Amino acid sequence: MKKTGPERKIFSKQNMTSFTMQTTLIKVPKADPGEVTVRFFPKMLNKTDGSVYGYRSETRKELIYKVSQSRVPSFDQLFRDVEFEFITIYQFLDPTKNGAKSKDELSDMLDKQMNGSATKKWFPYNWSDAEILTSFHTKYFDHFQLKALKTNPNNWDILDIQGKNNTIYVHASTAFESVLHIYWYIEQLVVSHQSILPRDKDCKVAIIGGGPSGLLMARKLVQMGYTDITILESKENNSGGAPPELTERYAGKTRTFLFDQTSVSKDKIPAELGTCYLSPAYDNMIDDFKRTGLLKGQDRVRFDQVDGLPVLREIVIDDQFSSDGPIMNLIQKGTPGQELLDKAIAPQKLKGRQIPHAIDATAYYKLKGFEAYYEGKDLDSVVDKFKKFDLVLAKTIVKYVLFHVKNFGTNRPFAPDRKRVNPDLFRLNIPQFLEKYNFKALLGTLQYGYSVQGYGSTAPDSTMPAFYLLMWVTPGILIVHLEDQILEKVKELIPKHLAPIIHEKPVVTAFTKGWGTVWDTLKEQFEDEEHPVHIDYGVDIKRITRLHRVGPKKII
Questions:
Q1: Does the N terminus or the C terminus of the chain have fewer Cβ atoms within 10 A?
Q2: Confidence label for 467 from pLDDT (cuts 50, 70 and 90)
Q3: Nearest Cα to 204, choosing from 228, 225, 169?
């Protein structure tokens, strides 16, 4: 497709870049029943070189769901019958810093690291007994580089070219990578920019790509009355190439693999190698999906800590607490400081004068926040400072909420008018932004809530513009990761007109049948002969010729 000058500027490699994500699904003999379901290693993610930075046990996730629904007597009782676990492993690469790496290169890196002694300290499974079932290698999160945002190409420039040359852009880079942002962006377009759409509802519409963006745009156009829509998809229908023991459901960066584990469930269990979690921010979109039949037979697995069960999430703490920093200073205060930390990381305890190599995620958010907030500050009365840190954290959260509302309002995924947005969000990387606006107390929470999703590092050398942090970490996303006592303090401090954004049940969830099943259901709706949408699979597009004059039946 011959691009116009503005299009070339916006989508050039000098201005827009992306990461690489690789996820690998393995089957491995089970670990100890007391092991965690998810473990995240910030140090490894911050390398951005393709290192393994975390894993999730799909088997334990399913068990926790069943126990939380009171469908089984106990976790331990059911776990006794489990022989193998299915584990999803994550790798993250920033090619602009560490060069491009192929799927095979990252697979070799995975094997080397998993056989290394360092990984064995935090990965509790025997890699030599693991069977690799499948892996997913993808370009991930197209975004503007910091140097580009400083000099203009941005998401509002994309809005300015929408509809010109009979073209509308709705792929993930127009907003953000998540399904929720795609959904929000399409809603924003049809509400605020209706003039970009053709007036003739019977005109021909071609949508390139059958991923979530293309499928959701086709769905929205049908709801608006358009009658002749064709989706051009390069892949064959259901041609994922998964091994026989897996059923693959996919669309774009969604990769849901369904596997059998009868000792855990009579139904197939989903392993998400792409699109995965949901938060309360997804609720309105999910309600819309339910009304239109996209969630038939689906439930949302509560992926949150359940009392009486093993710790759900842990963070590996290597290189996160300096030898002369606030947390070690607290330990050196003897019994008063150590008792506070024992209480904070319970049920674990300090080992001598050392924090365990991995601790509960909610405890980590607080400890890392304390470390970042008081770094380089006066550490006199450090014990008292730690006792009062819940209030500091709550006040910082409220301050962040107010900052977010000031810059984004209630608009999602971002404010229609760039002038509303503080220019620092385009000039500063994430660490610089946290420092300047005194949000460093949130660093622990953001390392997980932002970075673990593959949206970039929060380390000092991060190149991620703060703008993307604000796009993803909305007030609703931020409070998902709070301890109950801190959430209560936030509720006390938040202005009354903003109280509705504080959810009573800030939980993370996932679909019981996976995201891939959602898109399969939508595709099935499109397959009805009377439906306005038709999907052409296996399409190899050689050239796109656009009309520069709007014709009655010519829209590409």
A1: N
A2: very high
A3: 228
Distance, CA of 175 to CA of 142 (rounded, Å): 9
Q: Which among 284, 179, 246 is positioned nearest to 519, based on CA atoms?
A: 179
Overall average pLDDT of the 282-305 stretch: 89
**E strands, 183-312, where?**
205-208, 229-232, 246-251, 254-259, 269-272, 300-302
Length of the chain: 556
Q: Where is average pLDDT lowest: 252-256, 288-292, 325-329, 503-507?
A: 503-507
Question: What pLDDT was estimated at residue 555?
Answer: 40
Cβ–Cβ under 8 Å, residues 314 and 358: yes
Contacts of 74 (CB under 8 A, 6+ apart): 67
Rounded CA-CA distance 496/102 in Å is 51
- The token duo for 534 is 């038709």
| C-beta neighbour count of 131 within 10 angstroms | 12
Residue of 473, 334, 467, 332 lying closest to 396 (CA atoms): 473
* Nearest-angstrom CA–CA distance, 112 and 47: 16
Please give the radius of gyration of the chain, using alpha carbons only, rounded to the nearest integer.
Answer: 24
Contact 442, 402 (CB under 8 A): no
Q: Residue written as tokens 């000092």?
A: 460
Residues in CB range of 82: below 8 A, 6 or more apart = 30, 59, 63, 261, 263, 264
The kind and range of the H/E element at 195 are: none
Q: Is the pLDDT of residue 505 over 80?
A: no
What pLDDT sits at residue 71? 59
d(CA 22, CA 34): 27
Cβ pair 441, 373 in contact under 8 A: yes
The 10 Å CB-count burial string (b at 16+, else e) for 354-378 is ebeebbbbbbbbbbbbbbbbbeeee
Supply the pLDDT for residue 551.
Answer: 44
Element (H, E) at 510: strand 509-511
In whole angstroms, what is the distance from residue 410 CA to residue 7 CA?
Answer: 29
Check pLDDT > 70 for residue 268. yes
Block residue for tokens 């998540």 = 178
**For residues 134 and 257, is the Cβ–Cβ distance under 8 A?**
yes
Cβ contacts of residue 535 below 8 Å, gap of 6+? 210, 230, 231, 233, 237, 523, 526, 527
Which is more confident, 280 or 255? 255
Q: Give backbone dihedrals phi and psi of 243, rounded to 5 degrees, phi first.
A: -65, 160
Residue 70 has pLDDT above 80, yes or no: no
Nearest to 106 by CA among 178, 38, 27, 48: 48
* Residue 148 · residue 5 · CB < 8 Å: no
Q: How many Å separate Cα 550 from the centre of its chain?
A: 38
**How far apart, in whole angstroms, are the C-alpha atoms of residue 334 and residue 277?**
41
- Cα gap 447→456, rounded to integer Å: 10
Q: What's residue 151's pLDDT? A: 80
Confidence of residue 556 (pLDDT cuts 50, 70, 90): very low
pLDDT at 122: 95
168-214 confidence digits (pLDDT tens): 999 988 988 899 999 999 999 988 888 899 999 999 999 999 999 99
